[in-house]
Structures are given as structure tokens and as C-alpha cells.
Design brief:
The protein is of the alpha/beta class and 251 residues long. Helix content is 42%, strand content 16%. It is globular.
């Protein structure tokens, strides 16, 4: 991970990785932890599953308590920005205010909010012609903090039109119940989003590390110190950089 940041021209390093899963909790996270260990990056964990068992109630009623425990564990860990990627918990306002949290969300700045599954279904219901992904500053307003950057993804044309045409002959509610996320159009949309998300993250870290964008006191600023929302209301469009970085033939 550190090597990849250098290759993209980012003047940055990863100081730590935090996970709300503990070791041994799931094979997928354990595989990721082994990767983190292989790079010699400090790993800090605090299991939200174990926390739920301890409180014996609704997690949402104890969100700030959990986040305070996380912040206590991260105390003394310096970071100019923290990235929420694959972190499926809603972060409390207190944690948003204390840490500069950049969130990866699988939609355009004016697109749907919610989980990636909810986003894809909403795009299908709206018969959208494009989608994308964005990096924004996490705030108490879920998926609507100040935008840092985004990439657009066309979801019409080759590889999509046949699926849209097939949808016209079917009932979407029936598709959700019978095929769910295995629905061909759902899979095609998510695949194109997912392909671009790592590149969006890398390119965003690069522009932040080089000072093109700064995150200061809960604000996203451009190089001149002006709020980015004034000069670029939807943030930096990184379509060109991401197209250049992506392989021509995904495999």
C-alpha cells in the first residue's frame, strides 16, 4: 500500500489501519489483516460485534460510546486525514468533529445515499444513465459532507443496453425478490463502480498529499485556501486521471 502511494506520486504514508472487526472474526478481514501485517503497518482493532453483545441493546443508541472507545484506542496516532473505505458503520458526530474522516461513497455527489446495494437499486429504479463514486468529508449528515473528488461511470451503451432492454419486460419488484443482487444489470453497474473506486481513492490521496486540496478544521479547501465548494461545487473531477491509471482490459 505504501509502495502504491509512492507510484501515484503521493507524498504520503499509512500510519495505521483501524478495523471494527477483530482477528479471527471473519476470513475476509483476516486476509486483509495479513496484508496489513506484511507491510509492517500498525493494526488497531475494536470489534463492533463484541460491543453489540456487551451492550445487549440497539447499536444506534450506543454509537457515541463505541466511537469514544475507538478514539481512545487511536489516541496519539497522528494522521492528516483518515479514510473510511469499507467501514460499514455510521460515524457519530463527535467522531466526525474530532477526526478528519474522508469517506468513499459509491455514488455521484448529487446521487443516492445509503449502502452500495441501496444505491444500485435506486439507480435502476430511476433508469439512470450514469453513476459514479465520490470522496467526501464525513459529517453528521450521512453521505452529504463537503465533496473532495468524484469519478463518473456511464451505465448505458455496450454491456448495459441489453440489460436495460430486458428490464422493460420484467417487474423490478419481482426481480428484487427472485434474483436480488444477482440480477445482470445490478451486477454490471456495481462492477463498473467497483473498478474505479480504488483509483479514485489513490488519486484523491495524491491531490491531498500534494496540497491541491486541504482538509482543515472540518472544511475542504483548495490550494488557495478557498472552500472547494465555492470553486468546484461538486469537488474535483478525476475522470481523466483515473482513465489513465486504469488498465485498458480489466481482468
Amino acid at each position: 500500500m505504501q509502495t502504491r502511494l509512492i507510484e501515484t506520486g503521493a507524498n504520503a504514508r499509512i500510519n495505521f489501519v483501524f478495523s471494527n472487526r477483530g482477528r479471527g472474526e471473519a476470513e475476509g478481514s483476516d486476509e486483509f489483516f495479513r496484508l496489513v501485517d506484511s507491510y509492517g503497518i500498525p493494526l488497531i482493532t475494536h470489534s463492533s460485534t463484541e460491543f453489540r453483545k456487551q451492550i445487549g441493546g440497539r447499536f444506534s443508541d450506543h454509537r457515541e460510546e463505541f466511537d469514544q472507545q475507538v478514539m481512545d484506542k487511536l489516541a496519539g496516532r497522528d494522521a492528516d486525514v483518515c479514510v473510511l473505505a469499507g467501514y460499514m458503520l455510521i460515524v457519530s458526530g463527535k467522531m466526525c468533529r474530532q477526526l478528519p474522516l474522508l469517506n468513499l461513497h459509491p455514488a455521484l455527489p448529487d446521487g443516492p445515499t445509503g449502502t452500495w446495494q441501496e444505491v444500485v437499486w435506486e439507480l435502476i429504479e430511476a433508469r439512470a444513465s450514469k453513476t459514479g463514486a465520490m470522496i467526501h468529508l464525513a459529517t453528521e449528515e450521512v453521505d452529504r459532507g463537503p465533496v473532495v473528488s468524484y469519478v463518473t461511470v456511464p451505465i448505458t451503451g455496450p454491456g448495459f443496453d441489453e440489460h436495460w432492454q430486458a428490464l422493460e419486460r420484467q417487474d423490478l419488484d419481482v426481480i428484487k425478490k427472485t434474483e436480488g443482487a444477482d440480477f445482470a444489470l445490478f451486477q454490471a453497474i456495481r462492477r463498473e463502480q467497483y473498478r474505479r473506486e480504488p483509483y479514485l481513492l489513490f488519486e484523491t490521496l495524491r491531490v491531498v498529499s500534494q496540497g491541491e486540496v486541504r482538509v482543515v478544521d472540518g472544511q475542504v479547501l483548495d490550494a488557495s485556501g478557498t472552500q472547494l465548494s465555492r470553486s468546484m461545487p461538486q469537488g474535483l473531477c478525476l475522470n481523466h486521471q483515473i482513465a489513465e491509471a486504469m488498465p485498458e482490459n480489466p481482468g
